[in-house]
Amino acid sequence: MNRFTYTLLLRLALPFVLARLWWRGRRESGYRRGIAERLGVYAIERPEKLLWVHAVSVGEVRASAPLVRALQEAAPDHKMLMTCTTAAGRETIQQVYGDSVLASYLPYDYPGAARRFLEYFRPRLGVLMETEIWPNLLAECRAASVPVLLANARMSEKSAAGYTRWPDLMRPAFASLAAVCAQSADDAGRLRQLGAPSPEITGNLKFDATPDAAQVAAGEQWRQALGRAVVLLASTRESEERMLLEDFKELDALIVVVPRHPQRFEEVAALAGERRTAQAMPSAQTRVYLGDTMGEMAFYYGACDVAVIGGSFAALGGQNLIEALACGAAVVTGPSMFNFAEATRLAVEAGAALQCAGPEAAASATRDLLADPQRRQAMSRAGKALCEAHRGATERHMKVCLRLLRERARG
User: Fold this and answer.
1) Are 319 and 312 spatial neighbours (Cβ–Cβ below 8 Å)?
2) Is-contact 324 309, C-beta < 8 A?
3) Helical spans, DSSP H, in 25-128
């Protein structure tokens, strides 16, 4: 497949894409707002000098925070534009940055929409977080002389195999990147094989994120007031809650479930006795408690004795375990952590996390940890030390960003 065929297929799919947006808007109204932005039509502020960061959804928005803050400090005369793809990502941009950034949806990957986006905002630098490779967008950025950095880049074996199926489409897209900051040597090697120019190993920005200390402290106080052990099922995905609760229900602990996506809160509520938005402190008889609030993960990690990372028991690649480590939680994961392969390896080797073969093994490991407070404390210390030791990715990213801005200024 080449870019012409890809674009033709996208055009044919547009009516279905818009219908799906409207359908998703039944549960998340944010999907019915900003539809024109997805087609490259904007009616928001257009500053003279602008830097652009794209973070597809909640996790990427939060991961980008250290870099965004550093860019704002280094270039105070530039306005920051943050784009996303999901409604939850848009809400998170508002939560994390408030009015300090402009926010919009990224246009769909049509040449005209991408061109209108670039002509309207005229960014001096583009930063795509982690794995956002859009062939038409990158081609238009190159034509408009907008340097694009793939930041905090990761590339699993599975994803790399998918990209290699379409070399005529994807190799030019990767080659259009001005620079790549890879999380690990393995990520850099796969990105190089796909055509990315000279990937640099800069580490993971998530290690530079600082948990909200007030939230962590509030969580610790909540657990003390509760007076019993707490096991957190963190950022769970579709089908995982029932699977995990089946094996975790016999634990002598309160099971707190925090789904990854807020649109699933009502679905998961059917499995819980109480929920945080209705009952701030669960009653003594409650065994399963739904964490149905946004922006409080540091609270939940502070409140738990053991954090079980979701997305890792279905074949989904796992969710961010680094935040849990930074908050001092003893971490247990399932087998599928390919989206955080390097961080998981480091955490297991450091004694900060346990990776289990499935829900039954995870429940057994959690039971053992609940009975061994000294081991949990050792894992907590190891996790915090690991996060501290791997800080510095923001500084290394900034060197690349400033180099690209200088090169663009020279023309």
Assistant:
1) yes
2) yes
3) 58-63, 65-74, 87-97, 111-121
Three-state DSSP state, 124? coil
Strand 274-275 to strand 254-259: parallel, antiparallel, or no bridges (unpaired)? unpaired
Q: Give this prediction's pTM.
A: 0.89
Phi and psi of 20, rounded to 5°?
A: -65, -40
Q: Which of 60, 130, 241, 342 is catalytic?
A: 60
Amino acid found at 202: T
**Which residue do the tokens 């920005």 mark?**
205
d(CA 238, CA 109): 27
Identify whether 45 is a catalytic site residue: no
- pLDDT over 70 percentage in the chain: 100
Taken in order of first residue, the domains within the chain and their CATH numbers are: 3-203+392-410 (3.40.50.11720), 213-389 (3.40.50.2000)
For residues 294 and 276, the answer to whether their CB atoms sit within 8 Å is: no
**How crowded is the C-beta side of 306, counted as CA atoms within 13 Å?**
29
pLDDT in tens, 299-311: 999 999 999 999 9
Residue type, 182: A
Rounded Cα–Cα distance for residues 52 and 82 (Å): 6
